[in-house]
Amino acid sequence: MPGTTTEKLVANINYACGSGLADCRAIQEGGPCYSTNIIKVANYAMNAYYYGAGHEDFNCYFDGSGRIVYDDPRLRISLMKQTGSFMKQAGLLEDRIEFEV
């Protein structure tokens, strides 16, 4: 969830990866998904736990700091920018476009 503290994200990583339900080898140093970005690491660990625990909504709660996302917000923003550019070229949109991020 937006606004989750670094400490909570680390706790979520430790919980998910220590549970035995999530395979977190990929995010360990030297792994293909290793990152120093705590948000990316937490996202991977929490997602791996969710899938390892059986895809139940309550397995994504993480004391209120997790949520199920059905699409990739980065793709939505990219699509909105492309659509906005097309609409502007077609004269259907003003110069200013605002996006909620």
From TrEMBL:
Keywords: Signal. This is X8 domain-containing protein. GO terms for cellular component: plasmodesma. It comes from the Eukaryota. InterPro entries: X8, X8_dom_prot. It comes from Zingiber officinale. Residues 1-86 form the X8 domain.
